[in-house]
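::Amino acid chain::
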Amino acid sequence: MSSQKTLYEYMKKETQSETNQQPDPHYEILEFYRETEFQETPIGKIPRDWKFIELAHLAQIIMGQSPPSSTYNREGVGMPFLQGKMEFGRIYPFPVMYTIQPLKIAEPNDVLISVRAPVGDVNIAPCRLCIGRGLAAIRFNPEVADYMFYFYYFQLIKKRLEVLGKGSTFKAITKKDLERLKVVQPSVNEQRKIAEILSTVDRAIESIDRNITKLERLKKALMNELLTGRVRVREENGKLIFYRETEFQETPIGKIPRDWKVVKLKGVGKIVSGFTFPLEFQGKISGKYPFIKVKDMNNSYKYIHVAENYVDDEDLVKLKARPYPRNTIIFPKIGMAVRLNKYRILGREALFDNNIDGIIVDDRLAYHEFIYYYLQARVNLISLAGMTTVPSISKSKLENIPLPLPSINEQKSIAEILSTVDRAIELHHKKKELLERLKKGLMDLLLTGKIRVKVKNDNVR
């Protein structure tokens, strides 16, 4: 069938490289060396040939001022407007508001800094922007300072910037605070080379972010089609083949294929609750069983194998608790964490606390990964919690969630397709984590002068 596609073809189209350009054969070879001669300053040792001066000697500070709200619009009329850091990105902001009456303007390449709680976050102005009272623009003199170097330097000294914030309940930084802020000043050439190195890492991270976004769009599209049966999947000659369904039945959850059925969650699994975890049992960093808390779910993508706390068999007796089996699906059941709609699967026998519920799927009736993906795509936890001050999900609501149920084989095929995309997403997240650690390490070494960089011009053919 011409409409059929293999998963390989589908993913290849979505994740193909953005460019096949060959690298420029002319480039600079960067050489690093360890600094040995330092001077003492109030912020610690810096290289002897660096200066330690007030920011006012390097840049002009422009404090933001908000235009009248009657001049705002989202239709792109006038000048882009940033009230605060809400639209900040990794390097550049993404304004959604415009104003026809700009009062304070940031120019391209100004460093934008958040001056009202939370203070200290920075971005670069990509164009002329109106800035509100939550921001200041720092306009560096290019003869003595490189704006990208100080963009990274402010990230390094964010804690110092936070300390500058005044006010017991609402922290804010003044223009005087910024002007008197003491910063390091290497030579402009060295600043530029350091910024170039860190920018290279950032560009690699941004490339990974773009691939993650593409893969997540692909996953969402596949879930919308496969979990409703609009697109079916079967195996032919060792390949998974997609085809479009034409025969449907009406059900309480919408149209599904005629050969599927609708069941309640309690018909394919058992809802289980977590256990109380007193403080005196917490703090053990190794043991037989992970004891999972909601925050541990942030450190995994799909399967969760580790936790900050562990228990052993002798602890279970005192806790009056038991481990739940591998492949149990878990999720927050109470508190603001419900809004995050996070589902995870136990990758090993483990316990979880009483802020979490679990589903032990009967593998004779359903495949746990299919149920996991259906819940992730179709069941918003906050909608089960209702409009209460403290969101909480009852067992009865969970048990009565309706689910579409294909054959076990089709469930496994659907889960295999979505798992393939998930593995690619997880791999990209791991690459991003490595680059984030590399960037952090480079910032600590290069922006403090512990490691110096010198440049040789060399044409390599």
In short: Residues 261-405 form a domain with the Adenine-n6-DNA-methyltransferase TaqI; Chain A, domain 2 fold (CATH 3.90.220.20). The longest strand covers residues 26-34. The radius of gyration is 27 Å. The CA atoms of residues 149 and 183 lie 11 Å apart.
